[in-house]
């Protein structure tokens, strides 16, 4: 499953209150509909936080388990997709914290082959590799800010870091990406 465009999630229709109520009381078909509709969003959030397809799949599964358990607590103060996005984000950050305690080296296969060019000779594969090479402390806040457009304060709340620290991490993440994506001397 590939990462997808965060802007297309805004157009996903929220489940009706009746669908949510059925899923909250254990209707498997109603919950399956929710999973099928939002699996791309949840996976993409997890992948962009974790940088690994395997970890993203595990975290996405955890997010849907949390969703199933907490669905009766959803109060429609925000849209369902916003609520699920926050749940997925929190789950991915929690997963990262847990895995940091038990790191296990894994070879990640290159999944991006003939990706489209994004201007000035930079491909999606190059950007993905550059993001993957960023230290976790820089990658997570930079992705949340620049890919998902979250405000700094919300990133601070989700990651449990002070606002100033988040701003510095995003700044350093961007600077590191600029260096990694800069054309080599003598080419161009």
If you had to describe this structure to a student in words, what would you say it looks like?
The protein is built from 9 helices and no strands. With 188 residues, the chain is mostly helical. Helix 3 packs across helix 4 (53-70) and helix 7 (136-146) crosses helix 9. Residues 103-118 have low confidence and may be disordered. Helix content is 65%, strand content 0%. The chain has helices at 6-9, 17-24, 28-50, 53-70, 80-101, 124-133, 136-146, 152-159, 163-181. The relative contact order is 0.10. The two termini are 34 Å apart. The chain has 2 domains: 12-104, Rna Polymerase Sigma Factor, Chain: A (Orthogonal Bundle); 116-188, Arc Repressor Mutant, subunit A (Orthogonal Bundle), CATH 1.10.10.10.
Quick description:
The protein folds into two domains: 12-104, RNA polymerase sigma factor, region 2, helix turn helix motif (Rna Polymerase Sigma Factor, Chain: A, Orthogonal Bundle); 116-188, Winged helix-like DNA-binding domain superfamily/Winged helix DNA-binding domain (Arc Repressor Mutant, subunit A, Orthogonal Bundle), CATH 1.10.10.10.
Name the features.
Rna Polymerase Sigma Factor, Chain: A; 188 residues; Arc Repressor Mutant, subunit A
Estimate the global geometry from the Cα principal axes. Answer: elongated
Number of helices: 9
Strand content: under 5%
| CATH superfamily caption of the largest domain | RNA polymerase sigma factor, region 2, helix turn helix motif
In the residues, how many domains can be counted?
Answer: 2
- CA radius of gyration: 18 Å
| Helical proportion, percent range | 55-70%
Task: State the secondary-structure class.
Answer: mainly alpha
Q: Write the CATH fold name of the largest domain.
A: Rna Polymerase Sigma Factor, Chain: A
DSSP strand count: 0
- State the low-pLDDT regions, or none: 103-118
**Annotated CATH architecture of the largest domain:** Orthogonal Bundle
**Average pLDDT over all residues:** 80
Order of helices and strands: HHHHHHHHH
- Give the CA-CA distance, first to last residue: 34 Å
CATH class of the largest domain: Mainly Alpha
Give a quick account of the main beta sheet: strands, pairing sense, barrel closure. none
